[in-house]
Specification:
The complex is a heterodimer of chains A (about 140) and B (about 120). In chain A, about 85% of the residues lie in helices and about 0% in strands. Chain A is built from six helices and no strands. In chain A, helix 1 packs across helix 3. The radius of gyration of chain A is 19 Å and the shape is globular. Chain B has about 120 residues and is mainly α. Classes of the chains: A mainly alpha (about 140), B mainly alpha (about 120).
Chain lengths: ~140, ~120
C-alpha cells in the first residue's frame, strides 16, 4: 500500500510540474499490481482528473488558457473519446496493452528528441519576456 | 476569414485525435494538444506555457467524459482514496507550486527515458 502511495505521489508531482504522467501509473498497475489493461487505463484517467485538476487550478493563476482554442478542441475531443472508448472495449487485452506500450515508446522517443525544440521555445519565451519588459520601461 | 479556417479545421482534427487516444488508451492526448496548438497558432507571440495549460484545460473534461464511459461499460475499478486519490491531489498541487522554482529540462529527459522503458516492458 505504501508503494502505491509513493508511486502515485511521484507521478502526480511530475504531472503537476508539466513533465507529464504519460500513463506511468498504467505501467505500474499492469506490471506490478497485475490489474487488467483496460481497468488500469480507467484508473489512470481518474488519477489524471485529480492530479491535473489540482495542478490546473494553480497554473491558471499564472498562465491564462487559450479560450477560443478550447471551444474547438473540447467538442471534437468528446466525439473522439466516444470512438476511442468504444474501440477499447472491443479490443483484446493483449492488443490493447501492446498499443499502449507502443504509445509510450513513441512518447518516450519524442520526449528524448524534442529537447532542442523545447529549449528554443524556452529561450524564445525568455527573449519575448525581456522585450516586453523593455517596452514597459520605455 | 481564410486565416481562421486554416486554424479551425486542424484544431478540430487535433481535438478529435486527442480525444480518440484518450478514450482508447487512457493517456497521451495532452501532448497532441500541445503539438497541435504549436503548429496552428502563432507560437512566436504566445507563451509556451499557455499551450501546456490549455492542454490541461482540454484534457480534463475529455478525461472526465472518458471515465464516465469506462464506468458505464463496467471497466472502472473503485480507487482507494488514501492510496491514489489523495496522493494524486497532493502531488499535482505540489508539482504546480514547485514549477517556477525548478528547471525541468533534466526531469523531462529522465521522464522520457522512463516512459520509453515502460513502453518496452509493456510490449514485451
Amino acid at each position: 500500500m505504501l508503494l502505491d502511495v509513493l508511486i502515485t505521489l511521484l507521478i502526480a508531482i511530475l504531472s503537476g510540474l508539466g513533465v507529464g504522467s504519460a500513463g506511468l501509473l498504467v505501467t505500474f498497475l499492469v506490471l506490478v499490481r497485475e490489474v487488467p489493461q483496460i481497468t488500469a487505463q480507467s484508473s489512470n484517467l481518474v488519477f489524471f482528473l485529480f492530479s491535473s485538476g489540482a495542478a490546473l487550478l494553480i497554473h491558471m493563476f499564472r498562465t491564462p488558457l487559450l479560450g477560443k482554442s478550447l471551444l474547438l478542441l473540447i467538442p471534437a475531443g468528446l466525439f473522439g473519446s466516444i470512438l476511442g472508448v468504444s474501440l477499447a472495449g472491443m479490443l483484446p487485452e493483449a492488443l490493447l496493452r501492446q498499443l499502449f506500450g507502443a504509445l509510450l515508446i513513441l512518447l518516450g522517443i519524442f520526449g528524448l528528441l524534442s529537447k532542442k525544440q523545447e529549449k528554443n521555445a524556452r529561450s524564445g519565451n525568455a527573449n519575448k519576456e525581456k522585450k516586453q519588459e523593455k517596452r514597459k520601461k520605455s | 476569414m481564410k486565416k481562421a479556417c486554416k486554424r479551425i479545421l486542424p484544431l478540430l482534427g487535433v481535438g478529435l485525435l486527442a480525444g480518440f487516444i484518450n478514450g482508447l488508451l487512457g493517456a497521451g492526448g495532452g501532448i497532441l494538444i500541445v503539438l497541435g496548438l504549436r503548429r496552428c497558432l502563432d507560437s512566436e507571440r504566445i507563451n509556451e506555457r499557455r499551450f501546456y495549460t490549455t492542454a490541461l484545460g482540454v484534457m480534463l473534461p475529455l478525461s472526465a467524459f472518458s471515465v464516465w464511459q469506462y464506468a458505464k461499460a463496467g471497466h472502472l475499478a473503485p480507487l482507494s482514496l488514501g492510496q491514489f486519490i489523495l496522493p494524486a491531489l497532493i502531488g499535482g498541487a505540489a508539482g504546480a507550486l514547485l514549477l517556477p522554482h525548478l528547471k525541468t529540462a533534466l526531469l523531462n529527459r529522465i521522464f522520457a527515458g522512463m516512459v520509453l522503458i515502460s513502453g518496452v516492458l509493456l510490449v514485451m
